[in-house]
Design goal:
The complex is a heterodimer of chains A (about 475) and B (about 400). Chain A is of the alpha/beta class and about 475 residues long. Chain A folds into 2 domains: about 15-90, no CATH class; about 100-305 and about 345-400, Aldolase class I (TIM Barrel, Alpha-Beta Barrel). Chain A is built from 20 helices and 16 strands. Chain A has a 9-stranded mixed beta sheet with strand order 12-10-9-8-7-6-14-15-16, with helices on both faces. A 3-stranded antiparallel beta sheet of chain A has the order 2-3-4. In chain A, α7 links the parallel β7 and β8 (about 185-190). With about 400 residues, chain B is α/β, with parallel strands linked by helices. Chain B has 2 domains: about 10-110, 3-Layer(bba) Sandwich (Glucose Oxidase, domain 1); about 115-375, TIM Barrel. In chain B, about 25% of the residues lie in helices and about 20% in strands. Chain B has helices spanning about 50-55, 145-150, 175-185, 205-215, 230-235, 240-255, 275-285, 300-305, 305-310, 315-330; strands spanning about 10, 15, 25-30, 40-45, 60-65, 80-85, 95-100, 105-110, 120, 160-165, 190-195, 220-225, 260-265, 290-295, 335. In chain B, strands 1-8-7-3-4-5-6-2 form an 8-stranded mixed beta sheet. In chain B, strands 9-10-11-12-13-14-15 form a 7-stranded parallel beta sheet, covered by helices on one side. In chain B, α7 (about 275-285) runs parallel beside α10 (about 315-330). Chain B is globular, with a radius of gyration of 23 Å. Classes of the chains: A alpha/beta (about 475), B alpha/beta (about 400). The interface between A and B is medium-sized, with 30 and 33 residues.
């Protein structure tokens, strides 16, 4: 029998240790949070971190083992470490293989609500000027069907899109004929306040498997203050609409979104309870965006990232406690961040990706025929800023829009992988480029990140999540389920 | 305890079988089952009535088991080729396949139709020398085994659910082994095939291509990865550079859409790192088809290396539970093999398989009182079983 070699024989391997790309951040306690190139986190003491970057580590000292298992070191001549990272990075970026899966049709800018925080600058009159024409709609559909994604989602937006329901019906009917011809699977969503929902519309939604997405800001007094309409009954109509839609279409066929105003900040529990009562399975604690009336009426200035983060943390704590006591409920934004942290599945969520989702993730066909790189881009245009106009349905093709110099420049300039402040950020793998936000707030697609509310919120959310994952096993178990669901 | 079947041993007597210098493969058949469909069929004879039945059915070969029939009393004109096996081979039944060498008078049972765990040893040669190897490799020229397998495959019942191939390292002579897989694909298309390999061969493009090109309908490579760290895995398998090639091999197999099972044997080197290993598997190889976390079989090299390998499973119970949870949460199919339920955390029970082989499933006297016994893996009946201090009957089902 040949002799067995001792462990030391394999620890003293001949080829040199090499550092692989890593990002890091000093955390409060003199420790370092380190992430590898695919965003897997681990924590090191100051001393360990210095030894890592100086390669003063050796098999058997447990720092080597931690660094090796986390893919921040390899041995010269080895290929598996790099191949694993390459495979995982490719998987994370796979959303690029199915570009422009989301197509938003702004069928009208008119709305019967008059929300002071309206980010799209709704209009109250003049059907001829603010409704999309049938011709524009047909052209937009043709462009949407030219996009390479095998499965595309068509979302009807407004204004209040139900004010132009006949056009929605025409687009759906046409898409159902032309989609299969173009080899596309189709999904339809109507983003509506549901005030104008009726049985005919519901029957149409049911017959065509259309999803409904609505706004619900919380309890009646809060919702109705945020969302005024004649009669002051926005809340009552939204709740009635949600219940009717749940009955007719099914529980999972209607979702709601909330918008955080200053009035919401100390009412997280009540807002969440409102969603629970309606049998909704989760909530997106969404901050106000700096567009449209939200800027004009100074709504957006009323709270900063820090106050929103306090609200978010408070809400998340409440949701986790609900889960702990046996009520499953999800904070959807956290779940998206977790999916990116805990898996390498490609999440093409348009606000949380780099290359940015503008154009490559979504195209917006405005009521006036102009095509925008994102929903926020058309919001800016209502504020007389045409930066994100890519063309007009009258003469554009999918290719002309997506390969336009304008889009390529905006996407190229904003890559978080190489943007200042972002490229070295420990959270980069889980974040995204938001050129529209930074253009709107700092007149630059990249922006100075320490001044960016987007950056502050992102870092705050991720810090919160990582802290829970590392220091609270019971919460971590819940969060892991969200991330891998 | 269950006694393992004597699947190899000495032939009591033999005559005929024209070429005595080479190995033969025969299939044992019921003597009264009508004319033998294959040249390799031999009547299974236990009584003198069986002799008459075999002759009447048209057999020219026979296998006598036990001492009830005297071979000399059977006319060579009636049964030309005759072999006598000791009575401990009484388990042989209709449809079983034997390999034997007439001049050295050695037999091996290659396939038992009634077993759900048939496995062919492909070679005793290996490019690893694992500290806990249960089938210690030998550097011998045993290329004939592959030919024997190819001769045996046409005799295997096509209704067989699964066939295993093991070694040694089956891919050392990969071209010949691919021939075996092709034969499986042709002859036994509805039989799943499970190959235990160290996976290093798949780091080479031509090996992965040949494997994938077999287009077997249900072929799995069971590949060990013992740690998330190069030197730990290399130490366990006693080979420099093994980790790098094995991981690369797994990636290439999955890139070609092949089924892969990752196998981790738990012992004092691997078990303390099992959480790290499972985390690593969940993050880096979540696309593998199955992960098997396996208790150590205390036999072969494991006996010689007990000093560095032995750990009471009780001492890694919590780590194992966490590792299983990490994999399950990540959506990776995971099973725990070879560990009795009394040494596992209750959260691990749903993942604990009842048994994987014939030579496991032995139980201790105290197991008689255990309510979990019908669902328990029991113990290895081979080697020198060493028991956890946690072993105790479970007297009531978990609430």
């Amino acid at each position: 029998m040949a002799r067995f070699l001792p462990a030391q024989e394999f620890q003293s391997a001949s080829s040199p240790i090499q550092l692989l790309p890593l990002r890091f951040e000093r955390t409060g306690t003199g420790r370092y949070l380190v992430s590898n190139i695919v965003g897997e986190f681990f924590s090191l003491s100051g001393d360990e971190f210095e030894r890592l970057v100086e390669l003063q580590l050796a098999p058997g000292d447990e720092l080597y083992e931690k660094a090796y298992a986390s893919h921040v070191i390899t041995r010269a001549g080895q290929t598996a470490q790099l191949q694993l990272l390459a495979t995982r990075l490719r998987s994370r970026m796979a959303f690029l293989r199915e570009p422009s899966a989301l197509h938003l049709f702004v069928v009208t800018l008119r709305c019967e609500h008059s929300c002071p925080y309206c980010q799209v600058s709704r209009q109250s009159s003049d059907r001829s000027r603010f409704d999309m024409s049938e011709e524009s709609a047909q052209r937009a559909l043709a462009i949407a069907l030219q996009s390479p994604a095998p499965s595309i989602k068509i979302e009807f937006q407004g204004g209040e899109p139900l004010l132009n329901f006949p056009l929605i019906a025409k687009i759906v009917e046409a898409a159902k004929i032309e989609g299969p011809r173009a080899g596309k699977e189709l999904q339809f969503v109507i983003a509506s306040n549901l005030a104008l929902l009726n049985d005919d519309i519901l029957a149409f939604c049911k017959a065509n498997s259309i999803l409904l997405s609505t706004s619900l800001d919380g309890p009646a007094d809060l919702h109705n203050k945020n969302r005024p309409r004649p009669g002051g009954n926005s809340y009552e109509l939204a709740v009635k609409g949600i219940k009717r839609a749940q009955q007719v279409l099914g529980k999972d066929r209607v979702g709601a979104l909330m918008t955080t105003t200053e009035r919401s900040l100390d009412r997280a529990e009540e807002i969440i309870d409102e969603y629970l009562t309606l049998g909704l399975d989760g909530i997106f604690l969404r901050p106000l965006s700096p567009y449209g009336f939200a800027v004009k009426t100074k709504q957006v200035q009323k709270y900063d990232a820090k106050r929103w983060l306090d609200f978010y943390r408070h809400g998340l704590r409440y949701i986790l406690d609900l889960n702990r006591s046996g009520t499953p409920f999800v904070e959807f934004y956290t779940a998206t961040v977790l999916a990116r942290m805990l898996t390498d599945r490609p999440t093409g969520y348009v606000d949380l990706r780099s290359p940015a989702g503008i154009g490559l993730g979504a195209l917006v066909y405005n009521y006036d025929g102009r095509v925008f790189a994102s929903d926020e881009g058309r919001m800016l245009a209502e504020m007389d800023d045409d930066t994100f106009v890519l063309g007009n349905v009258a003469d554009a093709t999918y290719r002309s829009l997506v390969t336009s110099d304008k889009l390529i420049e905006l996407v190229g300039a904003s890559l978080s992988q190489c943007a200042p402040e972002c490229h070295g950020c420990v959270y980069e793998s889980h974040c995204g480029a938001d050129p529209v936000y930074h253009h709107a707030t700092q007149h630059d697609p990249v922006g100075i990140k320490p001044l960016s509310g987007f950056c502050a919120r992102q870092k705050g959310v991720m810090e919160t999540v990582i802290d829970l994952l590392h220091s609270s096993p019971e919460d971590a178990a819940i969060l892991r389920r969200w991330g891998t669901a | 305890m269950t006694v393992p079947l004597p699947l190899r041993g000495a032939i009591t007597d033999v005559r005929g079988f024209s070429d005595t210098s080479r190995w033969h493969v025969i299939r044992t058949r019921s003597p009264s089952g009508g004319p033998p469909p294959h040249d390799a069929d031999a009547a299974l004879i236990r009584t003198s009535e069986d002799v008459d039945a075999a002759i009447a059915s048209g057999f020219t070969s026979g296998v006598i088991v036990g001492g009830a029939v005297d071979a000399a009393s059977v006319s060579p004109n009636a049964l030309r080729d005759l072999m006598v096996l000791p009575s401990r081979c009484d388990y042989l039944a209709d449809g079983d396949v034997l390999g034997f060498h007439a001049s050295s008078r050695h037999y091996r049972t290659l396939y038992r139709r009634s077993s759900t765990h048939n496995s062919f040893l492909v070679t005793e040669r290996c490019n690893h020398y694992c500290l806990m190897c249960s089938q210690p490799p030998r550097d011998v020229d045993d290329g004939w085994i592959m030919d024997e397998i190819k001769a045996a495959l046409p005799l295997v019942d096509p209704a067989t659910k699964v066939l295993g191939f093991t070694g040694g390292e089956p891919l050392l002579d990969w071209q010949s082994f691919i021939g075996v897989l092709e034969a499986c694909s042709d002859l036994l298309p509805s039989t799943a095939v499970h190959v235990l390999t160290n996976g290093r061969g798949f780091a080479r493009r031509e090996v992965v291509s040949a494997w994938a090109d077999v287009r077997h309908p249900s072929l799995t490579a069971g590949i060990p990865i013992y740690a998330a760290v190069d030197h730990v895995h290399d130490y366990v398998v006693q080979s420099h550079g093994a980790f790098d090639e094995t991981v690369l091999g797994v990636l290439k197999l999955k890139d070609r859409g092949q089924r892969v099972e990752i196998r981790v044997v738990l012992h004092a080197i691997t078990a303390p790192r099992i959480v790290e290993t499972c985390r690593w598997l969940a993050r880096n190889l979540p696309f593998v088809d199955h992960v098997a976390l396996m208790g150590l079989e205390n036999t072969g090299f494991a006996l010689a290396n007990a000093g560095v390998l032995w750990i009471d499973p009780l001492d890694y119970r919590e780590n194992l539970a966490e590792g299983v949870d990490v994999l399950a949460t990540a959506g990776v199919a995971v099973s725990v093999y070879n560990l009795p339920r009394c040494v596992l955390a209750r959260s691990t029970w749903p993942f604990a398989a009842q048994s994987i082989s014939d030579w496991k499933n032995g139980y201790l006297e105290q197991c008689d009182r255990c309510v979990e016994r019908p669902r328990c893996s029991g113990f290895f009946t081979t080697g020198r079983p060493r028991h956890s201090r946690a072993i105790a009957p479970i007297l009531a089902t978990a609430s």
